[in-house]
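DM from R.C. (forwarded with permission)

"hey, sorry to bug you on a friday — could you get me a structure for this? deadline for the figure draft is monday and I only need the backbone to look sensible"
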Amino acid sequence: MRVLLVEDDDRLASALTTALQRHGNVVQRVAQANGCLRLAGENDFVLLDLGLPDMDGMEVLRQLRRASAVPVIVLTARSGERDVLRGLRGGADDYLVKPFRTAELLARMEAVVRRGTRPLPPGTQVVEVGDVRIDLAARRVSVAGEPISLTRREFEVLALLARRPGVVRSREEILDEVWGDPFLSASRSLDVHVACLRAKTGRPELVETLRGTGYRLGVR
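My reply, with the result:
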């Protein structure tokens, strides 16, 4: 398996590289966020440190998830509950707090691979639900061939749901991804944006509400 190790600590990176190679992996190591975003698509797995020198790891994860479904395990010293929730809701497949044992990391990588990756494969840029066409790369939406004008946040809410069609996304997850705060007190804003999406597309079934849980993209 091709593994991209994103870690700025040279000693830890060297130890992890040796351990991963010993188990048959091909390891590519980078120390900065720009290297991660540039090379993630060429690898089968990403191990991502959050404490990078050029960009916060949570933002790296957010940008990575907009472009790729590659499995990601976060490796970090941040052990707070809020950090763990943000990492998992931001798209990480697992979250491992330093220091950790190499055997545990390898076991978690195997578990992620067994579970499989996200429904949309890397490179998928267009999602269609009935006559609604969502172009994730161009940030355009059309209904029955007619373009629909959405605000930035309306599109980001729809795109988040479209990347995993039929999968329920919690309110906290959407607020974290789009607004940057899973504990946003004024969460009524999310309801307003969903109502606008339904009204503008004229397809109220496009975004389904699961009361007490969250939202998902309708797949009918």
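R.C.: lifesaver. The mean pLDDT is 85.
me: no worries. The chain has eight helices and twelve strands.
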